[in-house]
């Protein structure tokens, strides 16, 4: 059992958007607990609301119902507790690599006005911050590109800088929204190894959204599948639920050879069928919620059992 | 086959063109000002058409803004145009457009005025800001006023203000103390409480003259235009001066075109010394007084560079008078006072 | 020759002579017109010859007038002051547009109003401006601003709106405050584009400047053109027009070069 402190707690979260005059449910009662140091990969068919869930955790959107806590603190908006790496637009195009990475450190120490009022102090801190950023960039083999602007970098380098920019703040959790989705295969593999290296070194908590099954299984210590394809006792279901929440076997981080192993192939087949196949649509009773921290609240109407009534929630832990 | 068609077209064109070619066509421009409103009436009432027919010509009467009309005249787009003696000298004459004055219609006798508020008097003009249309007759009026009262031009500062806005701006902006303009704007401004006229064109009578001018090149070819215009003008003058229903009707038409009431129009006529009588106009045109007044005007024009900034002397533009005398350069006459047609009108020989 | 070849690569010499050709053509056509008009009327003022225009130019530029002033300098200074003042006020337009693009409450407060004001033909309001603001500098600057302020506000607003939302969120995750995001993330990214828009609006500003000066002024490039019109001094008007074009062209080119040099981060992406 894991005795690390709880970092992320998503509890009874619903999210609906207006769509053609009514509210369309995207997330239907999502529950999730993540402990410090976990590398969670979130997978799901397109349109399942992966990015929506990420935005809720990030705080750039708020849930329709339910609540989300980061280290016991409710999420009310994006702040320095969560870092984010997007597929695009993560970097500020008007700043150099170094400036991008230093930005957060400076913003935390100085307000807009105090930057100008406390110039001497700023200069002093700036030297220190720059050293820190430089050290980090050196480690990421970006040391020779400090004064380049983002448009002068390759896609992979840009994402490295974005990761550095987020990591230097040492956020409680690092959110990544398909960060390698736009990269070619070779670069993507490099970046996967890169992020694992960073994880191994810092043991930071990562919440990684991807639509690539192999990537999800290779990177993560824990796999979560969010899907709109499932059945319950109710006739019509709308909005995605977590249909899989399990530890990924084989230790963490995994060797590159894992990508070609039979173990992966078997898991791949299982996850694909249960989570991503619209025709398969497993029943809520069959969800694989085998992770130690997995739990799911379910209404009686969905579960279909007489013993459960509306108010009572079934909490399962395996 | 094709050739025949072209022939037919050419013949047809020739026939349609013939009647137009037979009649000479002239363009005459006028602008709204009390002394020129009779032209509008001449056009409206058919008087002008009658006289044009008499001399077998076509006259197109065009209303324009004042300065653009003189510019069109200078660029030879129109054949005859109303203007003052000053603009005739400094715009066409100075640009080498030889111009003949065929009708001396009136002189401003109070239509141009310097108005002030806060009881600023003539000596009080020193150090004041003056709104006016620079280099216009307003400017001339100011120069004459200062000259007569021994004030230096440098003692006042000028703000060039468009004539279209000078009235409303002066009325609403009470920080302005001095304005110089002409009628009907003078009348509007005068009605504002606390505003006084301190100097008007009545103080310099006969110096600002309103005239009908024909390009001398046009005159050389034929004097029909001059005859028709003069005939029509004095017929309208006759109607206006007779007083009675016809005169009232004519004044009402003019007032309407000028955008004011008949009463207001009559008030403006009071400050306009109209030569209703052709003989009076002839007499003034032949007088030595005219030469004296023109000398004042041309000196002003020269001083302000209006005869061309590089003009070496006031004499660069010659002004010819009915008696054959010439003011300035005899070899470079730009402006000719010609009393012939007014004389014919006086004798009833048109 | 490949005039209508998309892949054509004109040589340097060809490119330069092509650029120059239309200018040369205009000059020749003008010289011919002036020459033939002067043959007919040596005093013609409507189409002055080049030497007359040079004369007119040197008189305004190098000879004091009867008030002991160098007119070209005096006028350029007066106009430049009005232009500069208006430019300074455009800083407020940029700030307002920025705020509207970043803060939803301000967006709702100002957007429709600005869209409406932008449609007002400023020139039609001229008499009102002069009546409200008098004949001084205020009314002239007000006219220029009424003409271009809303355009700049709306352009800045649209540019600020177009900054990806991710950038803002990213800012928050890096501990930046609302104003830090506004001034350190959004503003610097849109500034080059906004400067470009201001640059392209120079022409409109000059137009409004001349309109204002033509109605009421004691000095200024537009003022001079309208005053000397009273004696058809095309020998002054044409050099003035060329002078104004050269000034505007130079200002535009300088600003463009400065933007290119200053904002190197604006790459292809």
How would you sum up this structure, described in words?
The complex is a heterotrimer of chains A (318), B (350) and C (269). Chain A has 318 residues and is α/β, with parallel strands linked by helices. Chain A has helices spanning 50-58, 97-109, 114-117, 119-139, 155-167, 185-202, 213-219, 262-276, 300-303, and strands at 6-19, 22-35, 39-43, 65-70, 73-74, 82-85, 173-177, 206-209, 222-227, 241-247. Chain B is of the alpha/beta class. In chain B, 45% of the residues lie in helices and 21% in strands. Chain B is built from 15 helices and 14 strands. In chain B, helix 2 (37-45) packs across helix 11 (245-258), helix 10 (224-242) packs across helix 11 and helix 13 (278-286) runs antiparallel to helix 15. Chain B is globular and about 75 Å long. Chain B starts with a helix and ends with a helix. With 269 residues, chain C is an all-alpha fold. Chain C has one domain: MetI-like (MetI-like fold, Orthogonal Bundle). Chain C has 11 helices and 1 strand, in the order H-H-H-H-H-H-H-H-H-E-H-H. Chain C has helices at 12-40, 50-62, 71-102, 104-119, 126-133, 137-162, 165-173, 178-200, 202-215, 221-228, 234-262; one strand at 216-217. In chain C, helix 3 runs parallel beside helix 6, helix 3 (71-102) packs across helix 10 and helix 6 packs across helix 8 (178-200). The radius of gyration of chain C is 24 Å and the shape is globular. The model of chain C has no long low-confidence stretch (mean pLDDT 91). The chains are: A alpha/beta (318), B alpha/beta (350), C mainly alpha (269). The B-C interface holds B 67, 71, 74-75, 90-91, 94-97, 131, 133-136, 154, 157-162, 164-165, 168-169, 172-173, 175-176, 303-310, 332, 334 and C 41-46, 55-56, 59, 66-67, 126-127, 130-131, 134-135, 214-218, 223, 226-227, 229-233, 236.
């Amino acid at each position: 059992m894991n005795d690390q402190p709880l970092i992320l707690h998503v509890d009874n979260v619903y999210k609906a958007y207006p769509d053609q005059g009514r509210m369309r449910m995207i997330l239907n009662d999502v529950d999730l607990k993540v402990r410090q140091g976990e590398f969670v990969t979130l997978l799901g068919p397109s349109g399942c609301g992966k990015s929506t869930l990420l935005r809720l955790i990030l705080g750039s959107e708020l849930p329709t119902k339910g609540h989300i806590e980061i280290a016991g603190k409710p999420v009310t908006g994006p702040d320095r507790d969560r870092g984010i790496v997007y597929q695009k637009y993560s970097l500020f195009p008007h700043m150099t690599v170094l400036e991008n990475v230093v930005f957060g450190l400076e913003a935390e120490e100085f307000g807009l006005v105090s930057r100008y009022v406390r110039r001497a102090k700023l200069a002093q801190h700036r030297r220190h911050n720059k050293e820190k950023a430089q050290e980090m960039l050196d480690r990421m083999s970006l040391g020779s590109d400090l004064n380049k602007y983002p448009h002068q970098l390759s896609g992979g380098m840009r994402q490295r800088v974005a990761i550095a920019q987020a990591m230097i703040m040492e956020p409680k959790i690092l959110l990544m929204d398909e960060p390698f989705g736009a990269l070619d295969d070779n670069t993507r593999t490099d970046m996967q190894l890169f992020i694992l290296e960073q994880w191994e070194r810092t043991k930071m908590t990562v919440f990684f959204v991807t639509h690539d099954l192999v990537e999800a299984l290779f990177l993560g210590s824990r796999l979560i599948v969010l899907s709109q394809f499932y059945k319950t006792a109710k006739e019509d279901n709308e909005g995605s639920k977590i249909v899989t929440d399990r530890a990924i076997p084989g230790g963490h981080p995994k060797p590159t050879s894992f990508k070609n192993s039979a173990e992966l192939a078997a898991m791949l087949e299982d996850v694909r069928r249960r989570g991503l196949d619209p025709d398969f649509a497993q029943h809520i009773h069959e969800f694989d919620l085998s992770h130690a921290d997995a739990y799911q609240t379910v209404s009686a109407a969905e579960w279909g059992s007489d013993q459960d009534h509306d108010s009572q929630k079934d909490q399962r832990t395996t | 086959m094709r050739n025949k068609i072209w022939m037919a077209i050419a013949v047809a064109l020739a026939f349609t063109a013939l009647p137009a070619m037979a009649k000479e066509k002239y363009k005459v421009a006028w602008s709204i000002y009390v002394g020129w409103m009779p032209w509008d009436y001449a056009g409206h009432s058919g008087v002008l058409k009658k006289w044009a027919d008499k001399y077998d010509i076509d006259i197109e009467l065009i209303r324009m803004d004042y300065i653009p009309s003189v510019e069109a005249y200078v660029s030879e787009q129109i054949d005859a145009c109303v203007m003052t003696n000053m603009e005739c000298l400094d715009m066409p004459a100075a640009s080498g457009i030889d111009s003949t004055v065929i009708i001396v219609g009136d002189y401003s006798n109070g239509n141009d005025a310097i108005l002030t508020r806060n009881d600023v008097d003539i000596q009080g003009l020193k150090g004041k800001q003056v709104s006016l249309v620079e280099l216009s007759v307003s400017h001339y009026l100011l120069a004459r006023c200062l000259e007569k009262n021994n004030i230096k031009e440098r003692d006042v500062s000028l703000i060039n203000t468009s004539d279209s806005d000078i009235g409303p701006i002066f009325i609403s902006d009470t920080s302005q103390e001095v304005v110089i303009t002409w009628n009907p704007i003078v009348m509007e401004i005068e009605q504002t409480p606390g505003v006084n006229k301190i100097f008007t064109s009545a103080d310099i009578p006969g110096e600002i003259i309103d005239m009908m001018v024909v390009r001398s090149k046009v005159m050389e070819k034929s004097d029909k235009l001059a005859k028709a215009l003069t005939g029509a003008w004095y017929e309208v003058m006759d109607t206006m001066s007779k007083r009675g229903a016809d005169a009232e009707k004519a004044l009402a038409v003019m007032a309407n075109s000028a955008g004011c009431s008949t009463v207001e129009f009559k008030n403006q006529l009071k400050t306009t010394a109209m030569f209703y009588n052709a003989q009076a106009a002839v007499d003034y045109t032949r007088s030595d007084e005219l030469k004296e007044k023109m000398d004042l005007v041309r000196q002003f024009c020269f001083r302000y560079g209006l005869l061309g900034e590089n003009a070496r002397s006031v004499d660069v533009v010659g002004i010819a008078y009915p008696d054959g005398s010439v003011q300035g350069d005899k070899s470079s006459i730009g402006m000719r006072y010609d009393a012939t047609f007014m004389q014919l009108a006086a004798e009833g020989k048109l | 020759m490949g005039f209508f070849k998309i892949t054509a690569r004109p040589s340097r010499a060809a490119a330069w002579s092509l650029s120059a050709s239309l200018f040369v053509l205009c000059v020749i056509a003008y010289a011919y017109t002036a020459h033939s008009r002067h043959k007919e009327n040596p005093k013609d003022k409507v189409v002055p010859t080049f030497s007359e225009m040079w004369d007119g130019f040197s008189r305004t530029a190098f000879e004091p007038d009867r008030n002991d002033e160098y007119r070209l300098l005096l006028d350029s200074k007066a106009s430049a002051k009005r232009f500069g003042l208006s430019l300074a006020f455009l800083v407020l337009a940029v700030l307002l547009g920025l705020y509207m693009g970043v803060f939803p409450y301000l967006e709702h407060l100002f957007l429709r109003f600005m869209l409406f004001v932008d449609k007002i033909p400023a020139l039609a309001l001229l008499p009102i401006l002069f009546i409200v603001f008098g004949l001084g500098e205020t009314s002239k600057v007000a006219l220029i601003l009424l003409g271009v302020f809303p355009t700049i506000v709306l352009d800045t607003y649209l540019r600020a709106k177009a900054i990806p939302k991710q950038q803002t969120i990213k800012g928050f995750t890096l501990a930046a405050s609302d104003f830090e995001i506004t001034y350190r993330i959004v503003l610097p990214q849109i500034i080059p584009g906004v400067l470009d828009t201001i640059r392209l609006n120079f022409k409109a500003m000059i137009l409004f400047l001349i309109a204002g000066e033509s109605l009421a002024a004691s000095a200024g490039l537009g003022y001079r053109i309208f005053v000397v019109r009273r004696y058809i001094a095309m020998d002054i008007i044409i050099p003035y027009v060329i002078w104004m074009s050269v000034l505007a062209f130079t200002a535009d080119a300088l600003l463009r070069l400065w933007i290119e040099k200053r904002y190197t981060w604006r790459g292809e992406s």
